[in-house]
Design a protein that fits this description.
176 residues, alpha+beta, NADH Oxidase, four-stranded antiparallel beta sheet, 4 strands, 45% helix
Length: 176
Amino acid sequence: MEFFEVVEARHSVRSFQARPVEEEKIVRILDAANRAPSAGNLQAYEIFRVARREVLERLARAAFGQGFLAEAPVALVFCANPARSSRDYGARGASLYAVQDATIACTFSWLAATAQGLASVWIGAFDDDAVRKEIGVGPELIPVAVLPIGYAGQIPEPTSRRRISSLVHRVEEAIR
């Protein structure tokens, strides 16, 4: 798919087929995440790949009962790694850049999934501690997003968007 076709094809899909995702597609998604830009190229994030049904079900509960997560054959959990970013950027790296790095990697993954005919949805509502428990990490990592990936069971209608004129604000140079 051409880039703008991918952007237009991307939807928040909350229904997945039982069909497994081919390993080569997952590898391409993870490669896209690895190529995402990051502050100072530190890649201050970690990705956890979850495919075990019982773990997906517990993640769905940790995500406040978003059961569709457990329908997906695989989910990626993106965590910020503040310590990795703070080495070069101090407190701002820990509190902001690491989170930005994880979100950019997640976005690249979602677009890579879409480009390969797969579906996903960004899950940001979850209990951090419950997610940490399921992926086996401590408080040193901050869960940022869960990205269930699979073949769409149903594609939703496109949602409305703000008009560009209400979204973009021009800052003109002040007259001196």
